[in-house]
């Protein structure tokens, strides 16, 4: 029997918290959603930069097998469109700029064969990971005791192959390949279906974008329960006494019977929880770092590169800052937008420069790849959530060496009536918006189960 007066607190109005709230709302369960920022979406953030132009500064793409995202788009009548993916792409490697078609860059034959071998090997290894229990793989200790970079170096026979693999991995994981364990990389690959799906536009994780930006979907989901969201309300502490939790924000304290945390790991660590979380979870949280990535978007009157048979895509290991670039123009191509990722150590350096220097650096690179027209930009926006208090990084939390084998899945494990969502708690599409939704829904389902057992 479900008691409609049970008070559930959800912390975080990103996609995970919203997905949990949506289920509780549909079941008529009373809840409060606390959000630290003054906006919805968390690591999804669509910014209107002109009357008729929105840019996604956070998550933007969806792709096949992200079933919940497509179902939500359909349910809320939010349309999506194909990412532009025609023409030649640019590879800037070892000081030489070449164009190529498809997802595999033009390299010498040895490097190409080597690249194919490494990708197949990673796919094969990832396919054998149990997403619910990555640490039970027979070679879990060995995989978890080394970084992804160790693996790449061991398997790359040419410098070109190593460089291309590094840029690909930086873009997938939003960090340096030495910052995550091989086991985490394999888990992540399987979680997102396969490496091929993760790197691809066509039939891959970058296939579609949302009209008006990804936040449109967050807003549509939140609309029916908007009055249950308390914005500008960072949760500071949660004190448990018997079956009740006293949750405090700077605006006061309220009592709840169940809690869902839907915040990134470094921010979970900052909430004062008493009695403390399990030792395992606390130790895992101590070393749980976020990825480091920024988006740089240059807006033009038209996607002029398309007329030169260029896709707007580029991969670079050069001294330029942007490591990968995509055509991120709006659906109607009213403007042309080139969006580049600056990742890991380059991002740390890039965001120390002032805005004008950043813009000039980006422009110089775009001119090299797409021609002098890149001088004619009408707008420039760059952004990193690593500098935002309520994200501290992105795309997601990164598990370093020995994290999975030491702490297993303690992050996502409920502790009494405390439940843990967020994309970092997901087994499928971990790190993605789809994962955030699935983890939020799973946490809400656990609470429904608990309420029906009461
Ligand atoms: C630049 C970038 C590009 C990305 N690209 C993609 C993409 O194309 N496709 C894709 O699927 N994914 C992408 N991602 C990842 C995706 O955005 C995230 O996985 C997803 O949005 C995470 O959702 P979440 O609800 O788990 O967490 P969040 O979105 O981080 O939500 C957590 C919320 O909790 C709030 N909060 C934190 N602490 C507290 C507190 N103490 N009290 C109250 N509230 C608190 C935060 O303000 C935030 O709103 C990208 C991310 C970034 C940043």
TrEMBL record:
Its cofactor is FAD. Keywords: Oxidoreductase. FAD binds at residues 16, 35-36, 235, 424. GO terms for molecular function: oxidoreductase activity. Substrate binds at residue 341. It comes from the Bacteria. Pfam families: Amino_oxidase (PF01593). Coiled coil: none annotated. InterPro entries: Amino_oxidase, FAD/NAD-bd_sf, Flavin_amine_oxidase, Flavin_MAO. Residues 15-448 form the Amine oxidase domain. Belongs to the flavin monoamine oxidase family. This is Monoamine oxidase.
